[in-house]
Request: fold
Amino acid sequence: MSAFTDLQDWYAPVSNTRFYRTTKDVTWEIGVIGSGAFLTVPEGFGFDVSVRGFGWLFNPHDPRYLKAACLHDYALTQGWSRTAAAGPFADALVAGGVPSWRRFLMVAAVIIWKWR
Reply:
């Protein structure tokens, strides 16, 4: 396990929506362990879990998706491209134990959503 996967009580829902706010910093090491490159989402950052078009297949409140969505949304606010932000998103889904077929659909969705 890691500080990322072991992090508990790090988010709070914002009313009855698909929006959440971080209650702790969320840090992800980019690439391989020991890379020294980190993406840290600050406490108080607001994010959503958008599963547009796949709501019938993906529960947006599933905790396995939340850290990945948080990282993705924060990376986008920092100027990352959609494809670059999909990297940590995909890796965080792996860390969350999301099955490969579901990860494939979710990663494809976050990359192509802009071109809908």
Summary: The chain has four helices and five strands.
